[in-house]
Design brief:
The chain has about 290 residues and is of the alpha/beta class. The chain is built from 9 helices and 10 strands. The chain has a single domain, classed as Alpha/Beta hydrolase fold, catalytic domain (Rossmann fold), CATH 3.40.50.
Length: about 290
């Protein structure tokens, strides 16, 4: 015969579970930045070691932080990509992609590390990453002389940084790879058993702000992305105004998009960029990050 559990014992068990969840959730909130940003300081490789022409770039942000980047020019290029990387490691781990961009797209590239990454000073947070991107854009705009040559490109967390920048500046186009809807939405997806998402302070609200975009958009997303749900990339795309294009990368996960996508991946980007006219300066008013 099954023994019944008394209401008092059931209540005590439920309270223990709630207390445990509260403690775990509280710890997660205290460690919020450590769960979002995963910087490394040392460079695994440099452009010089790969024989790539480059300039070391020292960027100075509006709040006085010194940020480091590399500008990698291509002879005869007509476009320059401002590349905002994801939340892990540093720009030395993006040089393979830069090299492929040069080969397949024939573009100059400025890659930069957010504060706290690589050789950049400080420690990362949402507003800080936006400031770092602004400094990178200002340097690149001065270097190339025409914002119509600049394509803003962001991957993963860098997609959120790139989007905010694109809301504030003039450029030829915006390319977002593997964008998430927002950090709270990612928290719900990754930790569905912990209802901490309403308390998350870091927002990166791509789905909420992309409606204000005033330049052509291309969204790329692997249909087997195991980190950022494919549905979130579609949600960001659906919330964006025209003109826009979406390219699903068959069989690609989060970190192998261009490797799995191969020539079809590069052809999609190349075709999109070839379609875009140079923008008129002053189309829209800047929108603050927060």
């Amino acid at each position: 015969m099954r023994r019944s559990v008394s209401p008092r014992k059931a209540l005590r068990a439920a309270l223990r579970i709630l207390v445990l969840l509260a403690v775990v959730g509280g710890v997660m909130l205290l460690l919020e930045k450590k769960l979002i940003y995963f910087p490394t300081a040392s460079h695994d490789v440099t452009p010089a070691q790969l024989g790539l022409a480059h300039e070391d770039v020292a960027l100075h942000t509006e709040d006085g932080v010194r940020v480091h980047g590399w500008f990698l020019p291509v002879k005869g290029s007509r476009l320059s990509i401002l590349f905002c990387h994801g939340n892990g490691e540093n720009i030395s781990h993006r040089l393979d992609r830069v090299l492929l961009m040069q080969q397949h797209l024939g573009v100059d590239t400025l890659v930069f590390d957010y504060r706290g990454y690589g050789r950049s000073e400080g420690s990362p947070d949402e507003e800080g990453t936006y400031r770092d991107a602004r400094a990178a854009y200002q340097w690149l705009a001065a270097r190339v002389g025409d914002p119509g040559r600049i394509v803003v490109f962001g991957e993963s967390l860098g997609a959120a940084v790139a989007l905010q920048l694109a809301l504030e500046v003039d450029a030829r186009a915006l390319v977002l790879e593997s964008p998430f809807a927002s950090i709270p939405e990612m928290a719900k997806a990754v930790y569905p058993f912990l209802p901490v998402w309403p308390l998350v302070r870091t927002r990166y609200d791509n789905a909420g702000k992309i409606g204000g975009l005033r330049m052509p958009l291309l969204v790329l997303h692997g249909d087997r992305d195991e980190i950022v749900p494919f549905a979130q990339g579609r949600r960001v795309f659906e919330a964006a105004p025209e003109p826009k294009s979406f390219f699903a990368i068959p069989g690609a996960h989060h970190n192998d998009t261009y490797a799995v996508g191969g020539e079809a991946y590069w052809s999609a980007i190349r075709a999109f960029l070839d379609e875009q006219p140079s923008p008129g300066v002053g189309r829209h008013d800047p929108q603050p990050g927060s």
